[in-house]
Design brief:
The complex is a heterodimer of chains A (276) and B (263). Chain A has 276 residues and is mainly α. Chain A has twelve helices and no strands. In chain A, helix 3 crosses helix 9. Chain B is an alpha/beta fold. In chain B, the strands form two sheets. Chain B has a six-stranded mixed beta sheet, sandwiched between helices. A four-stranded antiparallel beta sheet of chain B has the order 2-1-4-5, covered by helices on one side. The chains are: A mainly alpha (276), B alpha/beta (263).
């Protein structure tokens, strides 16, 4: 049975996939449904949801279309979440592989760096980084990755430590393969699946960190994100709670979708291990 | 002039119970010769094989291979010199990256040692596969989708790819069933006759060693306790370990009183 078939058999995976597909479709089709700047003023401020047929989710304090903001915000959240996780896993897996495979002094040095990053709370690190460098989408992605690459690094190292004792690594040395080639081409691909299982946790964490940064006014000011929408709605939380609830529900759906998808992925991977 | 000269090799594994895996071990091997290294498990024979392959660094002692100081080689020089000294491992599955294809595994050895132009490597892989009794079509198969015996043939082809003078076979047939084992042993003997490759044949099974070796060395607790031509050792083992190993060889005796004729 192939991987896709195993994935489809897990109900969590399917639920996550459906949820993520809907959100991805919303993000991708945002410019089609809502062309133009989502930050443009579209109507009377603080219209409640379903009051106006053209503005189904109402407007915020400045009269901006909440529905348009929600769709465009999905974009930012997904881009930031996925790229931050990709950077974190790439860097983490590479550092972990080199540490585990190199051993000795290389291992010691790299793992001390990992620990240095681990003892600083990830959010504080992101906050400090964005405050110093200035808010933009790339900076936010790097800031979030800074706090989340240590998990993949530690996991990759542990995997590599067990894989490097296997005979095929000795066989690769015997045929004269360069240690770096052994690490990256022979060992890393096998150490990757369990590290990939961390993706969902990291993406979900990144989405929330991005929202928190935006909430504190440290997101990219030129794009709508769900975090900045919640921050915006906070001022009128008692009179117009929907301004915070709508993007909040978006966040819940995205994080839930990513978790469920990851759960299905892990299960599909585990089934293969069990069979192999 | 000997091809391989191992002198006074010592290796102690660190830890609470310090195990002396190699205790002043010396062996020599001539070109085109097979030395059967026999011993019970834990006797240090695999450590010796791995020390010769530079997978384990010995504490003291020297190894000369093809008239050079083998233990002095480092980095790039060692990687290049490895072409002449190859190894076949016990577990035919574990010795290949589970993601590799047959052709890829052999092609890697050719690529690393720059053997042949890139475009005719596929032909060289095909030739190597045919030399170990497989067909060229096997090159595209994933390593996980051929049988254990075929995999061990691929491992031998990979070792042959770089034209080595010596192949260390570490329990190379122990994981195979009896009929497959006989075929692989035949293949090894034929290759030796054609190419003059020397073998260091490591095994716990004296019967297997007898089938391929010229001389044998018996190891026990990190020491070589007995060496000599294989027939002599089997006919009259001098050491206690040697006697135990000879006694452990199963025999097919149809009429017990009749003595087995000498080969």
């Amino acid at each position: 049975m192939n991987f896709v078939a195993r994935f489809i058999r897990s109900p969590e995976g399917i639920a996550g996939l459906v949820l993520l597909s809907l959100l991805a479709a919303a993000a991708l089709l945002a410019p089609v449904f809502f062309p133009g700047d989502p930050l443009a003023i579209e109507g009377r401020p603080l219209l409640r949801p379903f009051e106006h047929p053209g503005l189904p989710l109402g407007t915020d304090r400045l009269g901006r279309d909440v529905m348009a903001e929600l769709f465009h915000g999905a974009r930012a959240s997904m881009i930031v979440g996925i790229s931050a996780a990709a950077v974190a896993i790439l860097v983490g897996a590479l550092v972990g592989t080199l540490a585990g495979f190199g051993g000795g002094l290389i291992d010691e040095a790299l793992m001390r760096v990992v620990e240095a990053f681990q003892i600083v709370p990830g959010f504080l690190l992101a906050l400090a980084f964005v405050s110093v460098v200035g808010p933009s989408l790339t900076v936010v992605v790097i800031a979030i990755a800074l706090g989340s690459w240590t998990g993949p690094a530690r996991l990759a190292r542990a995997e590599v430590l067990s894989i490097r004792e296997r005979d095929f690594v000795a066989a690769a040395r015997v045929i004269g393969m360069h240690p770096l080639e052994i690490a990256v081409k022979e060992v890393l691909p096998l150490a990757l699946p369990p590290v990939m299982a961390l993706t969902s946790v990291i993406v979900a964490g990144a989405v929330l960190t991005e929202a928190a940064l935006s909430f504190l006014g440290l997101g990219d000011p030129n794009i709508v994100t769900w975090g900045s929408m919640i921050a915006e709605g906070r001022n009128v939380l008692r009179s117009a709670a929907y301004l915070s609830i709508v993007p909040g529900l978006g966040l819940v759906a995205l994080v839930l979708g990513v978790y469920l998808f990851g759960e299905g992925l892990v299960e599909a991977l585990a089934r293969r291990e069990g069979q192999g | 002039m000997s091809l391989l000269e191992v002198s006074n090799l010592c290796k102690t594994y660190p830890g609470k119970r310090r195990v002396m895996a190699l205790d002043d071990v010396s062996i020599t091997l001539k070109r085109g010769e097979t030395l059967g290294l026999v011993g019970p498990s834990g006797s240090g024979k695999s450590t010796l094989a791995r020390a010769i392959m530079r997978l384990v660094e010995p504490d003291t002692g020297s190894i000369r291979f093809e008239d050079g100081d083998w233990l002095a080689l480092r980095g790039r020089a060692l990687r290049q010199a490895r072409a002449r000294l190859q190894m076949v491992f016990q577990d035919p599955l574990g010795t290949f990256n589970p993601r590799a294809s047959v052709g890829g595994a052999i092609g890697d050895a050719l690529r690393i040692h720059n053997i042949g132009a890139r475009h005719d490597r596929a032909d060289r892989v095909a030739v190597l596969l045919e030399r170990v009794g497989l067909s060229a079509d096997h090159a595209r198969r994933p390593i996980t989708q051929i049988s254990g015996g075929q995999r061990q043939r691929v491992a031998i082809a990979r070792a042959l790819a770089t034209a080595p003078a010596l192949i260390v076979l570490d329990e190379a047939v122990s994981a195979l069933d009896v009929t497959v084992r006989a075929h692989i042993l035949d293949l090894l003997v034929n290759l030796q006759q054609q190419e003059g490759i020397a073998y260091l044949f490591v095994s716990h099974d004296l019967a297997v060693v007898r089938a391929v070796s010229h001389r044998t060395a018996i190891m026990e607790a990190g020491r070589i306790v007995e060496t000599g031509p294989i027939q002599n050792v089997i006919a009259a083992p001098a050491s206690a370990t040697g006697r135990a190993l000879v006694a452990a060889v199963p025999r097919l005796i149809t009429n017990p009183p009749a003595k087995e004729p000498a080969p």
